[in-house]
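User: Sequence for DNA-binding transcriptional MerR regulator below. Tokens please.
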Amino acid sequence: MTDDLVPIGAFARLCRLSVKQLRHYDGLGLLTPARVDRDTGYRYYRPDQARDALVIGLLRSLDVPLAVIGQVLSGAATEALGRVRDDLESELARRRRGLATLERVLAHGLPTPVVSVVTEPAHRVLLARDVADGPDDIGRVTSSCVARLLPGLDGEPRLIGLFPLDVADQIPVAVAAVRADGDDLLPGGTFASATHVGPYDQITLTAHALLSWCAAHGHPPTGPIREVYVSDPATTPPDRLVTHLMIPLEESS
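Assistant: Structure tokens for DNA-binding transcriptional MerR regulator:
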């Protein structure tokens, strides 16, 4: 002890942190020593700094990022930790979807849907567009597009999701409602088609199988991938949802 200050080694033991961690937190400005010896560079801490050090250790054990911990120590705990909680919930939901998909593969093997080549006419459509922040955001954005279309439609409209072949951080998504008075034209052409039965978040299984078929048969896909929604998710259990996947084909030269 020096004038009621605690040397870094003793302070580290008191707070269940390593000396290396304390030096790192000092470098980030999270936990600055009360005194640094000018000659030796040795660090000393006040006993009342132990609370902040223990908070840092606790939050790091919960995988809270250091930048957020800095906000907590500055007094913005509720807002900062609320964002971390929301991020963790989103990650947990993503992992649960991944687990469900993996369990389907384990139970039934890799999908081998029947693929057919079909000719589709052009359609007049109403379009709703948005941009997803990565693959995990596609479901939310697609639902948002559907919700924007439905209020102006009567009966049970034919809805078609349009998704690019390339996956990036920003993914343009569109949903088309087939209408004779639609403002846009959805092109027709030749398509490879397969049917997916099951939750929407497992459609990637059928899409991968369909893309594999295209590659094996010398049909370069051109995109966008179309998802033709047959079932009403409001009245159909997720494992019974029927979706037709269609990929525009370009004949190989």
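The CA atoms of residues 202 and 225 lie 15 Å apart.
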